[in-house]
Amino acid sequence: MSGIRVRSRKDLRHQRRRKSHSCWDHLLIAPLWPMYDVNLGTLLRTCDAVGACLAVPKLPWVPDALAKGNTLRRRTCVHWTGHDPVRWLVDQRSRPDTTVIGVELADEAIRLADLPPARNRTIAVLGHERTGIPPEAVDELDVVVEIPMIGTGASLNVAVAGSLVLYRLAGLL
């Protein structure tokens, strides 16, 4: 026997929050140009895991996608950005002590492993699945981070990339 003891569900319940966090507006993930409802559900679950909030545009299909994707069946922390994502970014960036990070492939990007945990209010912006963050939104970023890859794909899907960045910003990776 190896001596490894797998924690039971009862053990895990005692170590974690008893109820979902209230919105503390400290760490937000913002897929501002969403394409697939399943990605929003995955990001919503990751937000609960790390104590973050989700910021999304209120497109006609998004509320249903979030309701379907909320597998925890608890109240979740969602910020609605309105219909102009770039304007929302400008407004957020003007708030004191706020850092806006973009997840994008760029010459100036830092590697995910070099991204420090969030120390102030931080918004991580995710681009469109195919075209990334639009140029007019890139101008509103304070920092750009990239997730290194050695495979043949150019990038990860939004839910996976967003989850990795959230865990890093939350100081859990």
Can you identify the CATH superfamily?
SPOUT methyltransferase, trefoil knot domain
Average pLDDT for all residues:
87
Number of helices: 6
Using the coordinates above, name the CATH class: Alpha Beta
Structural class: alpha/beta
Largest sheet: 7 strands, parallel
Tell me, what's the shape?
globular
How much beta, percentage-wise?
15-25%
State the distance separating the first and last CA atoms. Answer: 29 Å
Number of strands: 7
What brief labels describe this structure?
alpha/beta, seven-stranded parallel sheet, globular, methyltransferase, TrmH family RNA methyltransferase, RNA methyltransferase activity
Describe this structure in words.
Helix 2 (37-50) links the parallel strand 1 (27-31) and strand 2. It contains six helices and seven strands; from the N terminus they run H-E-H-E-H-E-H-E-E-E-H-E-H. Helices cover 31% and strands 17% of the residues. It has helices at residues 9-15, 37-50, 62-69, 85-93, 135-138, 158-169, and strands at residues 27-31, 53-56, 78-80, 98-103, 110-111, 121-126, 143-146. The protein has a seven-stranded parallel β-sheet with strand order 3-2-1-6-4-7-5. It is globular, with a radius of gyration of 17 Å. With 173 residues, it is of the alpha/beta class. The model has no long low-confidence stretch (mean pLDDT 87). It has a single domain (22-169), classed as 3-Layer(aba) Sandwich (Alpha/beta knot), CATH 3.40.1280. The two termini are 29 Å apart. Residues 37-167 form the tRNA/rRNA methyltransferase SpoU type domain. Keywords: Methyltransferase, Transferase.
